[in-house]
Amino acid sequence: MSRIHVTATVNGDPVEFLADPRETLLDALRNHLDLTGTKEGCGTGDCGACSVTVDGTLVCSCLMLAAEANGKRVETIEGMARDGLHPLQRKFIEHAALQCGFCTPGILVAAKALLERNPDPSETEIRYWLAGNLCRCTGYDKIIRAVQDAAAEMRQDHRGAA
Amino acid sequence: MRYHTPTSFSDAAAIAAASSGTLRFLAGGTDVLVQMRAGMVQPDDLIDLKHIPGVDRIERTAEGGWKIGIAVPGIVLGGHAELVRDWPGVVEGMNLVGSTQVQGRATLAGNLCNGSPAADSVPGLIAAGATVTVTGPNGSREIPVEAVPAGPGKTNLARGELISAITLPPRGKNGGDAYLRFIPRTEMDIAVVGCAVNLRLDGDKVVEARVALGAVAPTVLLSEACAKAIIGTTLDDAALAALAKAAEGEAKPISDKRGTKEFRIEVAGVLARRAAKIAYDRAKGMKA
Question: Does the keyword DNA-binding apply (chain A) (predicted)?
């Protein structure tokens, strides 16, 4: 079976690898690029643990072939902390918005995508946006509060910088 | 598996026609990849349509309608203010499909060709009078959306044919559409029943109507009886009662784990009534 040469930008870095035609973006991130922060929960697009952004759009990396990422800009959890943790990451720790942590990378990536579109989402908007990110430990309330708190801080910082 | 990336629909059709094995087209992939993973489908040829120019675009047609590329994902439809203003029912149906992540990939064409009787975007398209361009080895033809599904998981497209565009007619004046579905939760579920209503008013009177019912038959149904029940009325209580009765009469559902036959028949009537009222209010220019 012939392999497909894929070049892409992942977290700002140019990458290239040879993908099996059936291989998902999720498997390529984990197995070719050693970016194991992106998790496989269900593998069928139901749980959101494998959330990444592709050209700025939030997707399940299990529902995309690695070959489809050719030429695309991919952002994963590994690209989230820049100079220290992202506000969402800090607030998840402060609010204890995780227990086992398996769903957390996907939820952080999804929440970041939300706040980039909508810096001041209502609780309802947060809950609907994150409806495709399943967590079996925390019961969601702490996650929602952490996102709200991070959003408030980011709005404050933004005003401070303006 | 051979992964193809044609740059025209005629090339895609030619590859499909030449394929002797299991074949799948890839737009958003939110159904195809799940089927591949589950082992339900192991394509010999997978034809990725996203390298064809224009498939990611939403454009006004010369007539004032909309031409929607086959790879436009739900999140882009929902973010297109002018399209939402013209056809809110079509867009709200598509936007009910799956999660935010799924909306980032899933397409109208894929939802239609997956052939589910419960596909949330299909009743809205049918009620709107949308058409699809079908391209095959011998050229292209235009068919109404309701002519595509043949039964659960099946379409009427011949081997080598694929959908190359979706066209919505001009909205025109005093029109409104709406889609509602019933699910036992608030999000991330498959319709137990769905209903779309599209109508046009002259003053307070309904002069045109199209009603489509989902998940109550092997395919999404376009119901003339439902349309007749409200055309010529002001959508008063008597018209709404007649509409509900017509919808119940049209529904030929099965009982399964998501709902019994009796429940689905009753809900078809309820949703038809509610969707008609929303469409009516939208046609009146009221926010709904």
Answer: no
Residues B51 and A97: their CA atoms lie apart, in Å, by: 41
Instruction: Give per-residue pLDDT as tens, B13-66.
Output: 999 999 999 999 999 999 999 999 999 999 999 999 999 999 999 999 999 999
Does B133 map to a domain? no
Structural element, H or E, at residue B199? strand B193-202
How high is the ipTM of this complex? 0.95
Q: Which of B134, B135, B114, B111 is nearest to B124 (CA)?
A: B111
Q: Could you tell me the pTM of the whole model?
A: 0.96
Amino acid at B243: L
Contact across the interface for A59 and B104, Cβ inside 8 Å: yes
pLDDT tens, B170-191?
999 999 999 999 999 988 899 9
Chains A, B: CB contacts within 8 A come to 81
Instruction: Residue B248: give the domain boundaries.
Output: 175-283
Q: How far apart are CA B228 and CA B257, in angstroms?
A: 33
Q: Are B105 and A132 within 8 A, CB to CB?
A: no
For residue B80, being part of any structural domain is answered with no
Domains along chain A with CATH numbers: 4-79 (3.10.20.30), 87-161 (1.10.150.120)
The CATH number that applies at residue B190 is 3.30.390.50
Centre a 10 Å sphere on the Cβ of residue B14 and count the other Cβ atoms it contains: 15
**Nearest-10 Cα torsion for B80, B86, B90, B91:** 20
